[in-house]
Amino acid sequence: MTQRICFTLQVRPDRLEEYRERHADVWPDMRKALSESGWRNYSLFLREDGLLIGYLECDDFDAAREAMNRTEVNARWQAEMAPLFAELDSGAADEDMSPLPEVFHLP
Length: 107
Known about the structure:
L-rhamnose mutarotase, alpha+beta, globular
């Protein structure tokens, strides 16, 4: 069964343009790792105040996240992206993703 995952993070308002630029050209090996780890239909939406909404589909979110955490490319990406975020408890955005509970879905 496919899981639909939605999460929020906060991008630092003074780093919004850099965040957009980095995501305009995501590394090919990062894209490949996400796909191979089971991340599908993955989208990010960014509001002007830095609120980031992420959405993805996968078979098992915990397994997909663990698979990404085992890749070298993810470690590099997270290290480079961490300074763009505000209020990271873990120091890495992918570890601070907390899925929001789904309250409605129209298939």
